[in-house]
């Protein structure tokens, strides 16, 4: 069975703040222990020890290491090898062939490839099809900085002329981040893997985060990542199907059990694509999470 997250709300926790680990796990579906941007550089040696000593559930824990080619990469790899964790997020993913020969231990890793550089976007097909990659994630801010840009989103005083952003309103993503978001989703699906949607950087904007998560769920993302626990409830709510959606999906599933071809539900013709959509809705029931984990 393909890898899927334990739920729709993933949360970063700085690896140099071990006192936050348990609370982060309680307030999210999966924790991402962060050795990269969320961790002070001078604290990384101790943060690696924190990773080794961490007692969080490995099935619900991801470790973000520093990117290949960085001074911290080999040290991070060694720390994760000495830990119970095998779900690893690799930032600035471009050429992952380094994992083909790093060590026998890394061969068991399930890699979440973080796409946040221009080269990473252009190498998406290769990255998505790497045998250890189980999911794609993307980052708007690093990508914008790498492009020489100054803002990944339209400002509140800007008027996008082409329906900018998820909601078609100011505050949504500019064109290249929007394109990257779509490409990540497409390449993940083409490779038979899942896509995780990017963070909402404005941690006080709960409604904006909710709107993006609603769009992410409807578009096909498996989960949304957050840097603040206060946004996780809105993300979970966004991915949870409505009663109307559940009623429709149940009718479709019941009809499919009795029909091998197309059939009607409430006057709507149901065929294979709509059946698949109904299956996704049913899989997103809160009580279905445990059944669909791998």
Automatic annotation (TrEMBL):
Ranges for domain HpcH/HpaI aldolase/citrate lyase: 10-229
Matching Pfam families: HpcH_HpaI (PF03328)
Family matches, as SUPFAM superfamilies: Phosphoenolpyruvate/pyruvate domain (SSF51621)
EC number from the UniProt entry: 4.1.-.-
Keywords from the named record: Lyase, Magnesium, Metal-binding
Positions contributing to Mg(2+) binding: 116, 142
Keyword Chaperone among record annotations: no
Cofactor(s) annotated in UniProt: Mg(2+)
Keyword field contains Lyase: yes
A Gene Ontology biological process term: oxaloacetate metabolic process
GO MF annotation list: lyase activity; magnesium ion binding
Tree of life domain: Bacteria
Residues that coordinate or bind substrate: 64, 116
Protein name: Citrate lyase subunit beta-like protein
Species per Swiss-Prot/TrEMBL record: Corynebacterium urogenitale
């Amino acid at each position: 069975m393909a890898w899927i997250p334990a739920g729709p709300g993933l949360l970063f926790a700085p690896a140099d703040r071990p006192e936050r680990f348990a609370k982060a796990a309680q307030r999210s579906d999966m924790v991402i222990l962060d050795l990269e941007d969320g961790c002070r550089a001078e604290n990384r040696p101790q943060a690696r020890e924190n990773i080794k000593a961490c007692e969080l559930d490995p099935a619900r824990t991801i470790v973000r290491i520093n990117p290949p080619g960085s001074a911290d990469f080999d040290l991070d790899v060694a720390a994760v090898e000495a830990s119970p964790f095998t779900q690893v997020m690799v930032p600035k993913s471009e050429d992952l062939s380094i994992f083909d020969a790093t060590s026998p231990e890394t061969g068991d890793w399930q890699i979440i490839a973080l796409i946040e550089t221009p080269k990473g976007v252009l190498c998406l097909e290769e990255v998505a099809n790497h045998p250890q990659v189980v999911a794609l994630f993307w980052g708007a801010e690093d990508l914008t900085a790498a492009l020489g840009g100054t803002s990944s989103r339209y400002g509140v005083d800007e008027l996008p002329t082409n329906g900018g952003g998820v909601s078609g309103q100011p505050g949504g993503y500019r064109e290249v981040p929007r394109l990257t978001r779509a490409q990540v989703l497409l390449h993940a699906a083409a490779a038979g893997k899942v896509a995780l949607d990017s963070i909402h950087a404005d941690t006080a904007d709960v409604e904006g985060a909710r709107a993006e998560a609603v769009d992410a769920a409807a578009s096909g993302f498996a989960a949304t990542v957050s840097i603040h626990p206060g946004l996780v409830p809105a993300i979970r709510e966004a991915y949870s199907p409505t009663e109307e959606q559940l009623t429709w999906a149940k009718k479709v599933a019941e009809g499919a059990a009795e029909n091998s071809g197309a059939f009607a539900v409430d006057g709507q013709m149901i065929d294979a694509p709509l059946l698949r959509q109904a299956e996704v809705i049913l899989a997103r029931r809160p009580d279905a999470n445990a059944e669909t984990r791998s």
